[in-house]
Amino acid sequence: MRSPEPLAVTWSSEPSGLFIAEARRVAATWDLPLYERPHKRGLAPQLGVVAHAFLVRGGKGWTLVDAMGSLGVSPGLAMLRLKRLGSGTGMPDRLLLEAGIVPGDTIVDATVGLGADARVLASVAGPDGQVIGLEASKSLAVLLAEGLPLETPWPGSAPIQILHQDAGTWLRSRPARTVDVVYFDPMFERPRKASPAFAELRRFANPRAITRDEIDEARRVAARLVLMKSTDPTIFPCLGLEPLPPQPNALVFWGRRFRHEQ
To answer: Could you please report the per-residue DSSP string of 180-214?
Structure first.
């Protein structure tokens, strides 16, 4: 008996011709198996038989489905942050404050996940900038890469390119000083008690911790700054990053290294 695939592409139970065509394209583009889903047939009996998870094209865009639930891609919390930035009200966005992004910057989000931070960074980098999102999990990389083009981008944002790449491998392949900022936000550093959305995300994410080698490569590639967010401030010195003063009652902490400090 054939073993189930880790991930397969299919369409919703009552698809349009567009959904079927897009599912076929994504399967071919990303070298994933295609499940020719019969009309009005549920996916539950096929989980663990055809595939352990399905990337499904339906009326709400692309969704990852496994036996424990589903995960979609949307602007979500990023949109709340963008609206707050646009209105000029509330506390400054800590990511933008520490990263010092300016229009025209090229930024690498080395642990892009579902792209919330990437959207915020792109809004400041502007149309002359670029955000490159690296994602080691193929499931998440395909979900985000195919889901982002279905959204209406924040006006004046930089393009966001999503790559299915391990951060260390990609950084080692790049010449020195070819991007402005490299940013890490390893989600598995977050507390286990988190929102349901993060619980769904963890099932598909790569749990590997960031290494000193990856940070060193990031420092080589970044022309200005390497920035990292973590729930554990003690890791920054081990990674060659300077811990930044935390805010009162902080649950997340920041470490960074400027190029001139290397």
So the answer is: EEEEE--GGGS-SS--HHHHHHHHHS--PPP-HHH
Provide the 3-class DSSP secondary structure of residue 22: helix
CA 168 to chain centre: 15
Residue among 189, 209, 205 at smallest CA distance from 197? 205
**Residues with Cβ within 8 Å of residue 34, at least 6 apart in sequence:** 8, 9, 10, 23, 24, 27
Write the single-letter amino acid at 71.
L
Residue 228 to residue 226: CA distance in whole angstroms: 7
Domain total for the chain? 2
Distance from first CA to last CA of the chain, Å, rounded?
56
Domain boundary among 22, 38, 72: 72
Residues 30 and 124 in one domain: no
Examine residue 56 and state whether it is found in any structural domain, yes or no. yes
The tokens for 19 are 């959904």
Q: Kindly state whether residues 60 and 107 are assigned to the same domain.
A: no
Q: Facing residues of 256 across strands?
A: 227, 242
> Which mean pLDDT values do the consecutive 10-residue runs of the chain (262 residues) have?
90 96 98 96 95 96 94 88 83 90 98 95 97 97 97 94 97 97 81 58 85 97 97 94 91 90 66
Q: Is 152 part of a structural domain of the chain? A: yes
Euclidean distance between CA atoms 135 and 113, whole angstroms:
6
Specify the CATH number for the domain of residue 217: 3.40.50.150
Q: What is the pTM of this model?
A: 0.93
In 3D, which of 110, 159, 118, 114 has the Cα closest to residue 134? 110
Same domain flag for 118 and 235? yes
Domain of 110? 76-261
